[in-house]
Amino acid sequence: MPQLAQRVGRAKPSAIMVIAEKAKQLKAAGRDIISFSIGVPNFLPGEHVYAAARESLSHDSGQYGSNRGADALLDAFLKHIEALGFTGYTRMNLSIGIGAKQVLYNLAEALLDEGDEIAFAAPYWTTYRDIADIVGAKTNVMHCGPEQNYKLTPAQLDAALARKPKVFLFNNPSNPTGMVYTREEIAALAEMLVKYPDTWVITDDIYNAMVFDGLGYHNFVHAKPELRERVIFVDSVSKTYGMPGWRVGLLAGPESVAKAVTTLNSNHITSLPEVVSAAAVAALSGPQDIPQVKCKDFADRRDIVFTALTAIPGVVCPRPQGAFYAFPDISVAFGKSHGGTKIGNDVEFCAALLEATGVACVPGSAFGEPRAMRISYTCPAAQLQPGLQRIQQFFAELT
Ligand code: PMP
Predict the structure, then answer these.
(1) Per the database record, which ranges form the Aminotransferase class I/classII large domain (predicted)?
(2) pTM (two decimals)
(3) What is the overall mean pLDDT for the chain?
(4) Which residue segments constitute the domains of the chain, with CATH numbers given?
(5) Considering only 10-14, 221-225, 308-312, 350-354, which range has the smallest mean pLDDT?
């Protein structure tokens, strides 16, 4: 028998999908399921996005497009990032991908040779480890537990960068923790980054529109403009505009990196479909009221989730300030039982919780923090309180 490539053996199916699949099966079997498992926005883009897509179809060329992205898309993104504080960029600093996920994969291919090191903090978005595994990079994981609010400290970053990783990958606001770095925290980390000129810095900031409490969105290049020659900012229309299925990711960074990703695009995907580009242009340059309203809604939901979780004795939940996730430390439950089912770890906890209550959450070990679980609070509004009550009840029934 011929063998699959070793690279495929290293890639694991997403733990998030495993839980979501199990929840789907239980639902199909007639169970009342509340899903806190999948990180998708609970809204659709505005009518102007669909109108732009329809209009585009009416004069679609049916041809391949630009490997870097359609000019109109690049120009819309330039304007968009200017409002986020990235000034002085041109089309030559940009490139696109089929979602931020593919942009990140392209960046890994563009910046990492086999055996090179990539540093990132845990808890991390599951795909970071998978992308590193697929390109054969070594991971240098900086553990940031609940006791430090899941946030990377300058001292931890300093120690990791001293090992001279090729890439430092940063995520703000964070999936899975919902943490947001303040202007001061970003400035303190940027101080460390300037000390290590041989490390590329990728900032995966696709939740930048979902920041609460007036904290604002900050990037290393805002703190230290000279970092522009090494920082690659990654964005996406998925979470900001409720468009995860449209698959549009974008980057802004040094020209050499944008060019490398564009070359990879010419080999991997060629271009985005015209209709998709037109929809993304409309989203980026049209009215921004939907993301603003949704951000406020998520902040209100955060309050409900945070209050419910911190009311559970022994559960520790650093207060999320962005995205749409909470990441409570549930380790107080380990070693206990629920209705005769022993709970030894996060995976057993989430399995027992789903089985007993119908609430689906993702075990923290998928994100490199086995003491916690991820709650994504984008479910229908009517399910939020009942889902949280079921979690509270589950804890109360532990023996
Ligand atoms: N980065 C993070 C932190 C994410 O949570 C996600 C999606 N869950 C992505 C990137 C990928 O987004 P996209 O839909 O643009 O591929």
Answers:
(1) 32-391
(2) 0.96
(3) 96
(4) 6-44+290-396 (3.90.1150.10), 48-285 (3.40.640.10)
(5) 10-14
Q: Judging by beta carbons within 10 Å of its beta carbon (0-12, 13-18, 19+), is residue 45 exposed, middle or buried? A: buried
Cβ neighbours of 334 (radius 10 Å): 15
**Which of 115, 56, 45, 103 minimizes the C-alpha distance to 276?**
56
Cα 337 to Cα 64: distance, rounded to the nearest angstrom: 58
**What is the b/e burial string over 6-37, where b = at least 16 CB atoms within 10 angstroms of the residue's CB?**
eeeeeeeeebbebbbebbeebeeeeeebbbbb
- Closest residue by Cα to residue 344 from 360, 365, 358: 365
Contact (Cβ atoms closer than 8 angstroms) between residue 221 and residue 229? no
**pLDDT at position 258, please?**
98
Closest CA to 241 of 294, 204, 299, 277: 294
Q: Which of 362, 376, 89 lies closest to 207, judged by CA?
A: 376
**How does 276-306 read in b/e, with b if 16+ C-beta sit within 10 Å?**
bbbbbbbbbbbebebbeebbeebbebbeebb
- 8 A C-beta contact, residue 358 and residue 32: yes
d(CA 299, CA 326): 12
How far, in Å, CA of 201 to CA of 27, rounded? 42
Question: Mean pLDDT lowest for which of 130-134, 298-302, 394-398?
Answer: 130-134
Q: What is the b/e burial string over 351-384, where b = at least 16 CB atoms within 10 angstroms of the residue's CB?
A: ebbbeebbbbbbbbbbbbbebbbbbbbbbeeebb
Whole-number Å distance, alpha carbon 240 to ligand 1 midpoint, is 11
ipTM exceeds 0.90: yes
Q: How far apart are CA 377 and CA 384, in angstroms?
A: 7
pLDDT of residue 355: 93
**150 alpha carbon to ligand 1 midpoint, in Å?**
19
Can you tell me which residue has the tokens 């057993």? Answer: 348
Q: Which 3 state secondary structure label does DSSP give 380?
A: coil
Ligand 1: list residues with CB < 6 Å: 39, 99-101, 125, 171, 175, 204, 206, 236, 238, 244, 249
Mean pLDDT for 27-45 is 93
